[in-house]
Design brief:
globular; alpha/beta; 16 helices; disordered N terminus; disordered C terminus; 8-stranded mixed β-sheet; binds magnesium ion; binds adenosine-5'-triphosphate
């Protein structure tokens, strides 16, 4: 069921701060809709072995704002999305919709929650049913979740949905099967299906990474105009920090299950504080640098599961960090405020971003 249960005070109740002392850069856009409060998720991978896929993640999604979640493969981004979508239950912590802890125990409760919180996935081909037409795929959520009744009303709603995702004339798309559409058109149908429930939150898990480069910006622009039109609270998951800068009001950088840096997208990408964010940005500007950066990441990479398991004590990035000192191996840094809307989980901010280190107030980040 969805309802109240005993839990820690929500971030909203704590004055809107998701991390203590740090405001979300998305907060200025609108009210808080969906919150993860100190959420962790462990998976059992074999007898006696747990993997910490998500560790103590707190974030807020605000009406009309985009929060971008960036990180390499296996860092826990999709697990965060599935927790927010109610598809996974947190091992610790709470998910809150409008400040009310969410507890989904039954299929009916899940369906009701899904009306508010919808997902768009990376692969539109896999997320659409290949044996059904566009009409069928959109009619179901319209009748089940938005309670649209009557043939003429349904026809009107179907046309409106397809117009919203710029698939016109609607009639020519309603009878098509997924394989008859281009990748971009399929993703537009998947977005229309998500909108059919009239959600307040859209969780977009790498929505453009499988699409042709030439249509990625079009789809991101579409998501941005839908965000604005319907005041959607959006979580945008990506590997690509450049698109996070373009699309996100706030950017959260994830590494080994934890948020290691957060801040306004523009400021964070212009002046990254965490060495991992710096590495991501160094990798991003052009395709050659991206390849070189990926190779550099790969050459330092340990097996994903072991990274999460073996760094329980210290900073998970320490084995790859040029600035690591003994403290980093032993003591996991929390998110340390480096400005009113910024924080980084690094003991060495005085070295990695000296201009920001002053904002920690008394050298908290000093090592
Ligand atoms: N159901 C599961 N059972 C066991 N381990 C899981 C499960 N789901 C995720 N994991 C593990 O949790 C970690 C985080 O996975 P997740 O899919 O969230 O990463 P991601 O950041 O989305 O990666 P990618 O960029 O490749 O999509 C990985 O080590 C993954 O293998
Ligand atoms: Mg993923």
């Amino acid at each position: 069921m969805i309802g109240q249960r005993k839990s820690a005070p929500s971030p909203a109740a704590e004055g809107g701060a998701i991390s203590p002392g740090v405001r979300s850069a998305a907060e200025g856009r609108g009210t808080l809709v969906l919150t993860a409060s100190h959420v962790s998720k462990e998976f059992r991978i074999s007898k006696g072995h747990l993997i910490a896929a998500v560790r103590d993640v707190s974030l807020g999604l605000y009406r009309g704002a985009v929060v971008a979640l960036v990180g390499e493969s296996g860092s826990g981004k999709s697990t965060v999305a599935r927790l927010l979508a109610g598809q996974e239950v947190p091992t610790h912590g709470d998910i809150l919709l409008d400040d009310t802890p969410v507890h989904i125990a039954r299929a009916r409760a899940y369906r009701s929650y899904k009306r508010h919180v919808q997902m768009v996935f990376q692969d539109p081909f896999a997320s659409l049913n290949p044996v059904h037409t566009v009409r069928y795929q959109l009619q179901r959520p319209l009748s089940l979740n938005a309670h649209v009744r009557g043939r003429r009303t349904m026809q009107r709603e179907l046309a409106a949905l397809l117009e919203q995702v710029r698939l016109t004339p609607a009639e020519s798309f309603l009878t098509k099967f997924p394989h008859e559409l281009s990748g971009g058109q399929r993703q537009r149908v998947a977005i229309a299906r998500a909108l059919a429930s009239r959600p307040r939150v859209l969780l977009a898990d790498e929505p453009v990474s499988m699409l042709d480069v030439s249509i990625r910006v079009e789809i991101l622009s579409l998501l941005d105009s839908l965000r604005s039109e319907f005041e959607l609270a959006v979580l945008y998951i990506t590997h690509d920090i450049a698109s996070a800068r373009y699309f996100g009001d706030e950017t959260l950088v994830m590494y080994a299950g934890a948020i290691v840096e957060r801040g306004p997208s523009e400021a964070l990408t212009r002046q990254p504080a965490h060495p991992y964010t710096q590495l991501l940005i160094e990798s991003a500007p052009d395709p050659d640098a991206l390849r070189a950066g990926r190779a550099r990441l790969a050459s330092h990479a340990r097996p994903r599961a072991r990274t999460a398991l073996t760094n329980a004590q210290g900073c998970p990035f320490a084995p790859r960090c040029p600035w690591a000192e003994p403290r980093c191996e032993q003591d996991r840094p929390p998110l340390i405020p480096i400005g009113p809307e910024r924080a980084a989980a690094c003991w060495r901010v005085d070295v990695t971003a000296p201009a920001l280190a002053g904002a920690t107030g008394g050298g908290t980040a000093g090592g």
